[in-house]
Amino acid sequence: MKCPFCEHADSRVLDSRSGEGDQVIRRRRECGDCGRRFTTYERAAEAQVYVIKKDGRREPFDRRKITAGMTKACEKRSIGREVLEEAADRIARQAREELSDEVPASQIGAWVMDALRRIDDVAYVRFASVYKEFRDTDSFVKEVRSLAGNASAPRQRKRGEQVELFDAAPIIRRRKEQS
Ligand SMILES: [Zn+2]
Predict the structure, then answer these.
(1) Structural domain of residue 39, as residue ranges?
(2) The pTM is what?
(3) CA of 25 to the centre of ligand 1 (A)
(4) By Cβ atoms counted within 10 A, which residue in 18, 34, 36, 166 is the most buried?
(5) Which residues surround ligand 1, an ion (CB under 5 A)?
(6) pLDDT tens, residue by residue, 121-140
């Protein structure tokens, strides 16, 4: 392994440990010339999965996009990085386990929604509001209420109460401004 600092061709492994459920080997190395230390990660090469977009475009599955989307939905929700990383791992695994090497983007979105629903209600609603492209306040509120588990037995709402649900109103307003 070439040293990233001086490009010397030889380095010595100081320490080796596995992580991420034994799917990764992390090696701490020391350059044989400049003596600086660096880390390498080894993981199995995975068969490339492609995502088919709504407009038919095909792009390589990118786990980072999943984490980025979830991170955005979880903004200011104090949800641990590792929780999102684990969820992204699970989704990447699901994508690989599909029988085809192509997965529709809508399927990935559904998996992300599913994961967020279990992690955090607010993050779920934020993601869903963008992903499902709710056309009107009604369908949005219906989704929020079904999430709260009271869709089948709607109770009498107090005036103005529904807009307080998970900050639904600001999300809808933002969406309107965008379009
Ligand atoms: Zn070096």
Answers:
(1) 11-43
(2) 0.53
(3) 22
(4) 166
(5) 3, 5-6, 8, 31, 33-34
(6) 889 988 888 777 655 566 66
